[in-house]
Amino acid sequence: MIPRLHKMGARTIGLLHYLYGPGTHEEHTDPHLVAAWDPLAPDPGRNPHATYADLQRLLDQPVQALAASRRPAKHVWHLSVRAAPEDPILTDDQWGEIARRMVAATGIDPGDGAGCRWAAVRHADDHIHIIATTVREDGRKPRRHNEAKRAQAEARLIEADYGLRRLNTGDGTAARRPTSAERHKANRHNQERTPRETLRETVRQAMAGAHSEEEFFARLTSSGILVRQRVAPSGDLLGYTVALPNDRNKHGEPVFYSGSKLAPDLSPPRIRERFTTPAEGLDDGPGQPALPPVTGPSFARRRATAAAWQALLIMDHSDDGTAAAQIAAAAEVLDALAKTSAAHTRKELRDAAFAFERASRSHVKAVRGHDRALRQAARDLVHSGPALGRGEDGATTAMLIDMAFFLVTAAANWHAKKHHAQQAEAAHQAAERLRAAYKTAATQPMGALQQRGQRLALHVQQRQAALIRQTLPELAEQILAEPGWPALVATLTDAQKAGHDPAALLAEATRRRELDTATSISDVLVWRLRRSAHLPAAPEAPHERSARGGRGTLPAAPAAQPAAKAASGSTRRR
Prior knowledge:
The chain has helices spanning 12-20, 52-64, 92-105, 147-162, 180-188, 195-207, 213-222, 259-262, 268-275, 297-316, 320-339, 343-356, 372-384, 391-417, 421-455, 458-471, 476-481, 485-497, 502-509, 521-532, 542-547, 563-568, and strands spanning 2-5, 32-36, 76-82, 117-124, 127-133, 226-231, 237-243, 257-258. It is an alpha+beta fold. The chain folds into three domains: 2-162, 2-Layer Sandwich (BirA Bifunctional Protein, domain 2), CATH 3.30.930; 180-275, no CATH class; 297-568, no CATH class.
């Protein structure tokens, strides 16, 4: 249940006209009172002899009783209370009791016999609106200190008492929810998301990995939405607004939203923070070679997987600000991955990025700079273009989704330790959507690797099983019983043929201990080993290699390194 305080108003009659009227988009049905300060209060919705003016005069009487100099300039208080979509439809009596609890909790009518006058109007199944005038019967002002927090606390109690969906208390960092009018409008046009949500997703995707304001706005413009910038005489950006071309108000004009109205971190100052990263202490060290240019979607996905692994290691031993930056940058990677995904994984990845957006913000200030590997990975994904969803593209997509699942899970655990309930829940939801996306993306490449493993000689399979028992004794029997075990056999064999030490690779691959959250440990190890050993994610069959003249499928792949050296350098560039 979500209580929402609206801006104070000056005209009681104006709000009554809205509450009892048809709504901005004809979404109000059967408006009527469910409760009021006085059981005999007139109800213009059900009583044909009652008028809006009758109810307005009664609500305003304590205000008008004051001397003109003492009357507040804005005295109209407005609170909406909405149930979750999956909650049962409550009766008028139940909504009436909820209204009484809310006005008591917020200090509007604490039950002392001299509270403010109020009325609760219902014009939809899932919510009510409470209107009140903020002068008590005794002429004093109500005590409304921390009323928003008290309304939220009462909502949690109401959820428990009525068996409704239990929501987590927010911390003020969430994006604004769509209004009921926006939701009704989206439903009428058969749109999955409201314009506000679609624009927030579009702006976030434009920001993913962008290096400058110019690049950010160029991406926004090319995405097909309408963009307006407010620029100072000096040329500095003061603000911006965006709109969907087909989202119009009753006058036929585009409905624009400012960045800050879409989400707190989409205002110009917050966006600008991402483009200004401190350089001190962030150099990779002398003699470190520059990263090779990205040559396509599969290579970009490999680099993003390596950056996600690096972020996991950083979060193990970093302070809160650095961890918050990694989480925020992880959201950019998910946005970029969703934007460039193949058709068969697009919905799940969009849903994952959409859910994780809530987890990317908290009151812990992100320390920018240390997140540049993930932000560069997001940029690589965007600039490499959309993946085809098959071959090396499809296999490296599965590889990246697998690693992103663990990064998102680590973010959920971090938020849970900080008691960020909404963020932790959002990260868990994103993880479940990534799990679904992984199943779709991994079916073909993992099936091909399993077939290769099953065709290997029995003594090869037995040798790899002995290696697993020796290297990972606590996980061995579970791994050997999994359907993905043959694919791991094929991967260990490929790594050995490439000159790597499989035992060292396994030790590196299991350095993080989130394996207990994996549906298939063998799948996880396959992708981590193939990344660490620079093996093709979707190796070609022998006849395909012959047809291609023996050329490999991995663009710009580094040469194989001795295993010890590979393991020791895994936290720098991989």
